[in-house]
């Protein structure tokens, strides 16, 4: 796809969707040789082979696989000047073994920093919920033990039930103070539901337990 713009220039759409100035239909241009450019990015060094008549935008796509930076996150400088995506390498004087400097776009750095902080916060929340889930599971095991004892007709001291309810409520308060987002909200809700079920079970067991009679086991001894 091509079109003619102001100033007599012709433009073409590259496969990647980039609009660049159309090259002349010169057979020698069509067989443009490759050049190896040396790109410095911080303490890292890259050497990339690219057609001499490629654009800086196309070079960025090649560098994306090397650096992990998306083309929109890259800024390419040649001879101390930032080059636009539609500029051609050879037109800007890029030759074999030319040196370029790659930096990350400041706005991209800021987004990356925000994403890192958010991920760190999520990981911290996951650890907090996981640690709490261990404690909740221990309390749930105690609830199950009391439930079995009462179902077998054995009365348990009421203080055991009330203490267990208090411990579960403390966990509920701690859980409620943990800020969550994303999938951690679901994990938090799972633990909150487990605590609620345990408390409701203990409330029912408390009533059942109060109706049980303490069984006193005695032994009769015969004299011989």
UniProtKB/TrEMBL annotation:
One GO term (biological process): protein stabilization
SUPFAM superfamilies named in the record: BAG domain (SSF63491), Ubiquitin-like (SSF54236)
A Pfam family it matches: BAG
PROSITE patterns the UniProt entry points to: UBIQUITIN_2 (PS50053)
The organism's place on the tree of life at top rank: Eukaryota
A single Gene Ontology CC term: cytoplasm
GO MF: adenyl-nucleotide exchange factor activity; protein-folding chaperone binding
Domain Ubiquitin-like residue range list: 33-102
InterPro entries the UniProt entry points to: BAG_chaperone_regulator, BAG_dom_sf, BAG_domain, Ubiquitin-like_dom, Ubiquitin-like_domsf
SMART domains, A to Z: UBQ
Keywords: Chaperone
Protein name from the UniProt record: Ubiquitin-like domain-containing protein
